[in-house]
From TrEMBL:
GO terms for biological process: carbohydrate metabolic process. InterPro entries: ConA-like_dom_sf (IPR013320), GH43_C2 (IPR041542). This is Beta-xylosidase. One of its GO terms (molecular function) is hydrolase activity, hydrolyzing O-glycosyl compounds. Gene3D superfamilies: 2.60.120.200.
Length: 115
């Protein structure tokens, strides 16, 4: 990840799935991730989006439960280069060290478009 990074995360809690916006500042110096936004999902399907303004790299994360009406998650984030990987966008599935193994996530598609 970059020195400062932000991510839109789906997390599973005992009472359901949540969307979280997380940010870490100065991660290279031990800066910890903080949850800036969190909301419970009504179901188990969600659409994630990030709009990136060129050329300044301002990013706005949003989510939708129907694929049509997107809700902004938090404020605009300024993307910055990292030490060796730069800015990136992607999908991944991980579990915490305390979580039992064997979980999974289904991703139907991933699309990058220029507006």
């Amino acid at each position: 990840m970059g020195l400062d990074h932000e991510s839109l995360v789906i997390t599973n809690k005992p009472d359901g799935y949540y969307v979280q916006l997380r940010r870490a500042e100065k991660a290279d110096k031990g800066g910890e991730e903080k949850i800036l936004f969190e909301t419970k999902l009504k179901g188990n399907e969600v659409y994630l989006k990030v709009n990136i303004n060129e050329p300044n790299g301002l990013c706005q994360f949003s989510y939708s439960e129907n694929g049509k009406s997107f809700i902004k998650a938090g404020d605009v984030f300024q993307a910055k280069p990292g030490k060796w990987i730069g800015a990136k966008v992607g999908l991944y599935s991980i579990s915490t060290a305390k979580a039992p193994r064997g979980g999974y996530a289904d991703f139907d598609w991933f699309r990058i478009t220029k507006n």
